[in-house]
Write a structure and sequence with these properties.
single chain; 83 residues; mainly alpha; 10% strand
């Protein structure tokens, strides 16, 4: 129950930041912005990243993707751009 609560808090933080301005605090520091985000796409991106990033598949995908996008972005229909 506690882990589900923490997962919900994390999801709320990321979705709020992405939907509000396309950036989390760390994304502002790196000067990148998430574009094409909607509530459904943001949630899909969050869940896909939760599953794919720990496996390393997402990073490997970025090397072969023609636009250098990570797999959760490609699957969710979002894109990272320079801010």
């Amino acid at each position: 129950a506690h882990q589900l609560f923490l997962l919900g808090v994390l999801a709320a933080y990321f979705l709020w930041c992405w939907l509000r301005g396309g950036q989390t605090l760390a994304m502002r520091a790196w000067r990148i912005r998430l574009v094409g985000v909607t509530p459904a796409r943001g949630l899909a991106r969050f869940l896909l990243a939760l599953l794919l990033v720990p496996t390393g598949i997402s990073i490997l995908w970025a090397f072969v993707d023609p636009d250098r996008q990570f797999l959760p972005d490609r699957l969710a229909g979002t894109r990272l751009e320079r801010a």
